[in-house]
Amino acid sequence: MKIPPWQKGDESDIVFWVSSEFRRNLSGFPFGTRLNGSKLKEISERIQNAFKAPDTIAAVDSITPRDRKLLRDASLLNGFQPGDRRLFVLDNSAWRWCTALGTEHLSICSRYAGLSVEKSLESALAWEEALEPELDFAFSLDLGYLLSDIGASGNALFHQALVFLPALGWSENRDAIFRSLMKEGYSIHGIIAGDNEEDGELFEVGTELSFGMSEEESANKFAHMLRLLVHYERKARENLDENLEFSLKDRVYRSYGLLASAERLSYHEAKEALLALIMGISLGLYDNIPEKLYELFWLTGDANIRNNGFEHPELARAGFIRESLGIDRVIGGKDV
């Protein structure tokens, strides 16, 4: 299974990506957790027939462990259990995917780099509109698109974003900003990337409710919230005190040195170093493209390293990153 190349986007040193998800159920069928027997077989066949080539469609349980790991590293497929009955569909030409027969019958998703809520929505919506004539989605004039959690019904559109907020974590305002977001109906939780669990730098922010808003209103509100987060983070970066600025420079340069010289590199170490270099780009300490470094988050996972012919990822990972970023390996003044 091949993941499409990553794209470029605005504010991508802070907003790594934005995704839009339409959750849908089919009329005449029980919700996903209650599907079984002939109904499960019927809806599975109907969903598979609705997708067109060249989309890749597969039963999750039949995807090889290595490909499932690759999809997990790219945050496309999570929660696998033996006997998983879900279907997974990947658009081979764009960052669009669909998971079927989970809690809801369909989860139709699109992702774009940077602060690209409108593009993400347009891409997911195009897929949803192409599927609707084939699948007859469950809809109520009073409640909108019906979901297993009736409180989440409405346009059944949900947004998520992965944001990198290291400087905001060093300010006294972060907790107040997060509380304000949660009062507005957003969820926010930290993503552990190696050893920085306590630092609280990488966060997933998402919408929890879809009722009472049009799709455009939902997207505009989410984009506005992200622009505020970007503003607060940039202000925090501009106002670093001398000690923090020194510590940050040290972290960036140490990370570059690790990538330039390491013989063995774990996946967690790689992600930590890449995060530091992304921060270094925005502060003028390192010259590169944030999207290129973020793409290495899944390209340097064990699954993709092995797909490139290396049986020992920890030994091959550092060289893979050096080649991808054009970093020369220099030890004792000599190229090696």
Q: Segments where pLDDT lies below 50 for 5+ residues?
A: 193-198
Mean pLDDT over the residues: 90
Cα end-to-end separation: 34 Å
- Can you tell me the CATH topology of the largest domain? Creatine Kinase, Chain A, domain 2
Oligomer: single chain
CATH superfamily of the largest domain: Glutamine synthetase/guanido kinase, catalytic domain
The CATH class name of the largest domain reads Alpha Beta
Compute the CA-based radius of gyration: 21 Å
Q: Please tally the helical runs, counting DSSP H or I stretches of 4 or more residues.
A: 11
Percent helix range: 40-55%
Kindly give the count of domains.
2
How do the strands of the widest beta sheet line up side by side? 2-3-4-5-1-8-10-9
Q: What shape does the CA trace take?
A: globular
Q: Mind telling me which CATH architecture of the largest domain this is?
A: 2-Layer Sandwich
Number of strands: 12
| Helix-strand topology string | EHEHEEEHEEEHHEEHHHHHHEE
Structure overview:
There is one protein chain. The protein has helices spanning 37-50, 65-73, 117-135, 166-170, 174-183, 215-238, 242-261, 267-282, 290-299, 302-307, 313-325; strands spanning 15-24, 56-59, 87-90, 96-100, 106-113, 139-140, 144-145, 157-164, 186-190, 202-207, 330-331, 334-335. It is α+β, with helices and mostly antiparallel strands and 336 residues long. It has 2 domains: 15-238, Glutamine synthetase/guanido kinase, catalytic domain (Creatine Kinase, Chain A, domain 2), CATH 3.30.590; 242-335, no CATH class. It is globular, with a radius of gyration of 21 Å. The relative contact order is 0.14. Mean pLDDT is 90; it is low at 193-198.
